[in-house]
Amino acid sequence: MKQDTSVELSRSLGLWSALALVIGTVIGSGIFFKQASVLQLTGSTSLALLAWLLGGLITLADGLTLSEIGAQIPHTGGLYQYMNHIYGKFWGFMSGWMQVIVYAPAIVGSIAGYLGLLMVNFFGISSAWKAPIAILAITLIATLNMLQNRYGAMFAIVTTICKLIPIVAIVVFGLFFGHQSGIGETLGSVHQSMGNFGVAVLATIFAYDGWILITNLGGEIKNPERLLPLAIILGISVIILLYLGVTYGIFRSMSAQRIDQLGENATAYFATNAFGVWGGRLINIGIMISILGALNGKIMSFPRIYYAMAHEHQLPFSQWLGRLHRQTQTPVNATLALLGLSAAMILTVDTDRLSELCIFVMYSFYIAAFVGVFILRRRHSGGPKLFRTPGYPVVPLFAILGTGFVVVSELFSDFTGALTSMLVIALGIPLYAYLKRYYRGKENNEVL
Fold this sequence. Notes:
This protein is mainly α.
């Protein structure tokens, strides 16, 4: 495939594409399986709904805060670029290093592995096919995203519409045909405490995660100063409504005790009971399509970090990773790099555990980005009036406190994992120093 370093990314993504990517990247399988775990942690349907709402409000505060930064720094690479512009190249590199080496391939591998598991169960075939199916899925989606970005965006729109069908079916059935109260039911066997409630909120925050990846495509969104904040805010708002709707629909359709007994199988049981065997199968197909949509959003957005870092000479093989395909104007080489790392992880490591290890560091960088709103306000006090976070400074402070809750929780619940993630990111320090010397020497030689 011919490549040309003078080619630029195509700024062709409109609001609907960006909105579909936000919704499609966030909503995977969690919306169908987490109702029971949140209910078990809180002990009542009312507190479970409150946990989903609070997790959503924290996420919305995050989105409102980061939208202000995204409007001012509408470049390809998202969080990496924000850290780069606010705190300097070293911290930009550190935030990007963790993402490209561990977080991105681990997340892609984890989701693809779960898709493989669902498919072998759905078709009743040997579990030995789980890894091959996972690798085939990411290969097909990566190939699609090597074409013009409009194809990945179109796939996001189609899969988002498809995943809304089972979601709407659950909500409508629960509202109009459910016989439970939906709120006020309790689980007598569960000891309720604010500690449990906090863990439940934490679980919902993880279910809302992924919206930030749309910022990686800042260089390909039309009028990003306006459309990027709009897509983030509308997308998160829609996701909150959908999560609350599905949860309430299931609570209206089954008793709290029954949901507790069924656990992760509650939604599947509900679908079969409400819509028959074929209805249940269609719900399962909808879940798999939902996961494909989430995979597409991640495989479309993550390579933009590789590409952005390569342009700053902050990765090995930067010249290769920083190229765009001449015809499609997409980072084909960066996509291949993500595909290769993800496939290798699927075959060799526990991608679920690896992605969990990154949470502490990734959310720490989120906090740094949110603090950046205050820094940019002082730095650009006389600049153009782009999108401003409503409720400033309360909303950014709420975002910082909410995300800080995640970081502290991870530190106490998985100290070894937090320490491991810090050690992984520390490994990037000598690489940063080496690359800085290498490219500086190369530039000096070219001048000479």
